[in-house]
């Protein structure tokens, strides 16, 4: 009895309610919900600093499917999976990135077993995640060219970009390089090769970054169009 | 207490490890004490005992080239061995049990049939590989089909048999198998006593007379692909006779044996009718080899869900996979269950991965991987691949 009246109340007063409850776009959570802290070490830090007392009674969002407390969980790798994803096919995207990691390990181990010198062996990085981090860091551009219209002419103006944008561009380039291959080669293998190359500061993506920088350098005369 | 978002909580305690073995080998960086936990230097399968359970032993490159050059090691594991730069197999209970039996069998009695069964990815084929290695080292004549599914479900070529009405030949596969047989047993086939017992008339001009070498028979099959299937039947009969005489001690090993009894094959007649496996010529030879009407040998077969079509992969138990016909053909047999990794085997496997630098270690890896893979060897391999 009470339940029905409650639903009726909500149905009839939805418009009124929606102004009271703070909306957050399409999200199912209102915007005062805090994001979950799912990493074990960051939880421990909060406990140590005593901040946990404040957070523990705040309404918290549920963790996403890819947010696990596992040590193997890497936010940047998750981001790469999301950038690889097409039409929401996350299972495929995750499989591709995981196979790419597997390929990185195989390629690096092959190198490892080939080298005879003990010192050179230690130089070879066998951790796919650290290779991914290095590759993304190495491919980040500093500047970008933006078309700005001045006096009827579009000028390619070099503009500094934020770190987040640079990271996005870097990952976008890496994925594009992985897709640019012969039809007989798999995406995961090509991506693995590109990542290893980029981690060693060589390869196509690094060249692309340098080309962009060179063009920015050439267009430095237009730089003032940014603000005038 | 904390946030509601903690998904899995793993204890960060590594399991206590105790040294189980006193042999040591130190090919890489780990201390010898740690190596003892998962490796053994005993590459002679004859000496494998219960104390070696869960340890890895190395198959030498020569042996591998001899036994497994035309298959016998699953493809996914083959890739691993290339990456690891060595071929190491884990010594596990099922293969050890069968090896113990083979060691103590009374070979004057009819052949004993062993059936390895287990869920997908639990290590049936690799157990069979271990047994084969034992068979090779202890001087058995090996009759080995690396993967029967390749014949019944993805054969290279098929044609109607000319010698037998209503039968279908798999010429290329049969010739490839003969080559495999020859490489696996070249050291035994040169035995001067290995002669054929009767004349084999292939055509007007081609005759393998009685008293010629078995090697000649095999070579004839390889060179005249048209007669390869018939050669296999002849060879199987000869092997039985020679074993009965005591010249050879034979080990028959078939991976995916249940494909012999699964009606829905991908072998067709010239009229594109599906052929029952019993109407494939080569089947006859192996049916008679897995029968119990001969002695001085043993048969180890695996029944595997993957050898049949996907829609029928319902159960992994031998009665379902073999069907009534197959079960009665093999009965009585010794069923051997291949199970998932035990705690010790799992630790040993992960230690091996760490030593080969295949996984990057972090606290709680063992528990996490065990939980995700359910201790299934194949799944464990897959789960560890991107780590």
Automatic annotation (TrEMBL), chain A:
Recorded hits in InterPro entries, A to Z, give: Ribosomal_uS7, Ribosomal_uS7_dom, Ribosomal_uS7_dom_sf
Which biological process, per GO, is one annotated for this protein? translation
Residues forming the Small ribosomal subunit protein uS7 domain are: 61-220
The family annotation for this protein states: Belongs to the universal ribosomal protein uS7 family.
Q: Does the keyword Cell membrane apply?
A: no
Gene3D superfamilies the record matches: Ribosomal protein S7 domain (1.10.455.10)
What SUPFAM superfamilies does its record include?
Ribosomal protein S7
Q: Which UniProt keywords apply?
A: Ribonucleoprotein, Ribosomal protein
A GO cellular component annotated for this chain's UniProt record is: ribosome
CDD domains for this protein: uS7_Mitochondria_Mammalian (cd14870)
Source domain of life is: Eukaryota
- Name assigned to this protein: Small ribosomal subunit protein uS7 domain-containing protein
TrEMBL record, chain B:
- Output one GO BP term: apoptotic process
- Keywords in alphabetical order, please: Mitochondrion, Ribonucleoprotein, Ribosomal protein, Transit peptide
Q: What molecular function terms (GO) are annotated for this protein?
A: structural constituent of ribosome
Q: What domain of life is recorded for the organism? A: Eukaryota
Q: Where can this protein be found? A: Mitochondrion
What InterPro entries does the record tag this protein with? Ribosomal_mS29 (IPR019368), Ribosomal_mS29_met (IPR008092)
Which is one Pfam family of this protein? DAP3
- The protein's predominant localisation is mitochondrion
Q: Which GO terms describe its cellular component?
A: mitochondrial small ribosomal subunit
Family statement drawn from the similarity comment of this UniProt entry? Belongs to the mitochondrion-specific ribosomal protein mS29 family.
- What is the name of the protein in this document? Small ribosomal subunit protein mS29
Which species is listed as the source? Answer: Psylliodes chrysocephalus
